[in-house]
Amino acid sequence: MNQPWTPSQLADLAAEFHRLGYLILEHALDADETARLNAAVDRHWLNFPDDWISLSDSFCEGTNILPHTSDFDEVIEHSKTLPLLCAILGKNITFEEFAIMLRNPTANLNEIKGWHRDLVREFDRRHEIDAVSIMYYLSDVSPTDHCFSVIPESHNRLIDLNPKDVPMDAGIDCIGPAGTAVIFHARAIHNARLKQNSTQRRTLQAYYSNRLDQRTNEWTQIPARLYEKNDQSLPLHFYSKWNVTNILDGVGKRPEDIDPALPLSAVIKEVQRRAKLRM
After folding, report:
1. SS3 of 25, please?
2. Which residues contact 170 (CB under 8 A, 6 or more apart)?
3. Is the per-residue pLDDT at 279 higher than 70?
4. Domain 7-278 has what CATH class?
């Protein structure tokens, strides 16, 4: 693995992450990478429409992308961000899930799900959440664009803060040009803040956790080209969860009472609906 950071820089950034629960890294992707990944999103939208789910008027998500293309492998293993993720999570880091997210212009600014923590929605289970996400911006996110907002320290010092008690105008807006990466703890309270005059916001999002934990999600299949890799630069257990069926009981798990023949898009919508009721 290439090392774009000194050990001191990694230690400082990891300490800042553990304190705040998030980091904003501008220029994590260069212009060529950003253009290449945008083109890959366009291709996938056209070639695999069944992988895409409309979750609201403005929000579309591409799920289970990896079996159909290797175009996004480079961001999962990115040489600039992976060393930092390893510094945060340690030697047992494993890849969990990946998605493409499009947030389109909308006049309905009230469609957001509200402040929440990822993976598990029940407040009294917040201590079970132990994963880290990275979000890559493929479009500029200016102060007038839809953006990711986060409540600093709500993963740790403010862990007893209930998302229901957070004012809608609270938090830090994570603004940055295309190529920016935002790393955040899944336990940190966050939200999508919608803006009246936004352009389309494009992001790629991946999750990582500890190999000893339950898998966070069963929507992302890890194909053989990844789990059969013999790449000494990657962490030892990086793709070890490709066949794990012990899934955390949360928004990444198919409920047992749902018809197994139901399409994945319908399952995810129902899981999201139930999660919103528990918030």
Report:
1. strand
2. 115, 151
3. no
4. mainly beta
Can you give the residue ranges of every domain in the chain? Answer: 7-278
Residue range 9-42, pLDDT digits in tens: 999 999 999 999 999 999 999 999 999 999 999 9
Strand, coil or helix: 261: coil
CB distance 272 to 264 below 8 Å: no
Cα 39–chain centre separation:
20
The amino acid sitting at 213 is D
User: What is the DSSP code string of 125-193?
Assistant: GGGG---EEEEEESS-B-TTS-EEEE-TTTTTTTTT--GGGS-TT-SEEE-B-TT-EEEEETTS-EEEE
pTM attached to this predicted model: 0.93
Torsion of CA 268, 67, 57, 173, to 10 degrees: 100
Give the C-alpha separation, 57 to 42, whole Å: 20
